[in-house]
Amino acid sequence: MDAKGKFIFPGFIDAHCHFYGYGKGLNELDLVNTASFQEVINALIYYAKENNIYPEHAEINVNKTQWIIGRGWDQNDWNINEYPDKRKLDSLFPNIPVLLKRIDGHAILVNQKALDIAGFTEKTKISGGELVLKSGKLSGILIDNAGDSLESCIPKQNADLIAKALLKAQDSCIKMGLTTIDDAGLDRSVIEMIEKLHENGMLKIRVYAMITPNTQNLDWYLQNNMYKGERLTARSFKFYGDGALGSRGACLLQNYSDKENWKGFLLNTSEYYKEMADRMEGMNFQMNVHCIGDSAVRNLVQIFSRTPSSMTVADSEAVKSLSKLRRWRIEHAQIVHKSDLRYFKEYGIIPSVQPTHATSDMYWADDRLGKERVKTAYSYKELLDAAGIIALGTDFPVESISPFKTFYAAVFRKDEKNFPEGGYQKENALSREETLKGMTIWAAFANFEEKEKGSLEAGKYADFIWLDKDLMSCDEKEVLRTKVISTYINGEEVYSAKQALEKTYP
């Protein structure tokens, strides 16, 4: 093939995203970049009208009730940096359940109808979660496990809707040069649909599935073992250690700087994570744990480094050697106490991070952590130096799907507005080469797939992309302007900018 002077790179791998959730969300209310709660309400009203959803259409049968679901609001972007409450939702939609998820997915706002369906009252207590009260009454804000518990009341999507969501997500990904995605939390039904779509040739993109560790998934996969196909791998479980910094659910070693006597919380007990580590170890599954706060990180890296119950060997070097074979991952590794960096090196723990989190959070992270502690946050260079590799992703739809924004944030430590001048905590920037490796070969290593993909070598899959700029040498201002000309998976052109242009403008 004649590249005609264009630039060829290995296909990008997003080491942490929510592929299915992103596709599903394309049919839901988009609240990203809303500048106030009133903008959220305006968008909600417009969405309801466009979709012919009115209070009088509500069904009595809960299973038939049409939910209004949205995602993307962030109170930190508003003039009033406070959680909203449900009063306006109750007045607009007294008979239709409404669920509006915060941008990070760790807090939701719901109306009274949704609370009634879930059976939640002021007396409801949920471990690892919080039902926020206002003047002694439910405000409609639910944090972490409380929100997850309510979301379980939403009727599951049928197979056709799951397939449509996956195919829609694929369209967006391949346009961005993504050839493999790591979906951080999937149910068996979605994984099996991915396999089916791969088999019939409709889904081309490769998927590394992190399985949601509910009882049904744990029992089935630990009994049937991992799945490894040409385009689908399911050999890891995604656990949650804590919540998010923005919603103050991240578990910290010391109190939040902007909330007295509050450190956040773990979403489960240490005993639970130890038990799960033993189960993962016993069946050779990778254990990947969401850890934002430094307390959550410390808890999990210590569990990752302990002698498994299956071992009788007291030799610490044997434990370290075994640990490095596991390739267990800390997802996000957002705030890491300096004394805990050694665990990544000694036990082969892989930090899997999302550089755009740093440039999104930098506007308010100081408020949560204070001027000194924030220096231990988003420390990607220190993590790389400790672990030897670092896997990079986006966490889309929490952040933008664009790998070019990932590259820009990692190397220049700026957001798309070119802020701040000089870069945010620039001492933890990655080099261009390190960033490219984090988006290709190191991400492949984090998936046990470095012999199959992640670099352009004979014997590996022909997953590659054509770009109109050389990310290794172009000017800083050109990185975000980079365009994908073509995306190839297994040697097949699955996206062409030229064809897309002709299709859009005949």
Structure report:
By secondary structure, this protein is an alpha/beta fold. Helix content is 36%, strand content 19%. It has a domain at 22-151: Diaminopimelate Epimerase, Chain A, domain 1 (Roll), CATH 3.10.310. The strands form three sheets. Strands 2, 9, 10, 11, 12, 13, 14, 15 and 16 form a nine-stranded mixed sheet that branches. α9 links the parallel β12 (232-240) and β13. Mean pLDDT is 92; it is low at 58-64.
Broad structural category: alpha/beta
**How far apart lie the N and C ends?**
27 Å
CATH class of the domain at 22-151: Alpha Beta
How many β-strand stretches?
19
How many DSSP H or I helices?
20
Q: Helix coverage percent of residues? A: 25-40%
What is the makeup of the main sheet? 9 strands, mixed
CATH architectural arrangement of the domain at 22-151: Roll
Shape: globular
Give me the CATH fold name of the domain at 22-151. Diaminopimelate Epimerase, Chain A, domain 1
Question: Main attributes?
Answer:
about 500 residues; alpha/beta; Diaminopimelate Epimerase, Chain A, domain 1; nine-stranded mixed beta sheet; six-stranded mixed beta sheet
What's this entry about, in short?
With 506 residues, the chain is of the alpha/beta class.
Question: How do the strands and helices of this protein lay out in sequence?
Answer:
Blueprint lengths: L6 E4 L1 E6 L1 H7 L3 E2 L6 H14 L17 E6 L13 H6 L5 E5 L4 E4 L1 H7 L10 E6 L2 E8 H7 L7 H17 L2 E9 L1 H12 L6 E6 L3 H10 L2 E2 L3 E9 L29 H14 L2 E6 L2 H12 L10 H11 L2 E4 L8 H6 L3 E4 L1 H7 L3 H9 L6 H8 L3 E2 L10 H10 L19 H7 L2 H6 L17 E4 L8 H4 L4 E6 L2 E5 H8 L2
Parallel strand pairs: 2-9, 3-4, 4-5, 9-10, 10-12, 12-13, 13-14, 14-15, 15-16
Antiparallel strand pairs: 1-17, 5-6, 6-8, 7-8, 11-12, 17-18, 18-19
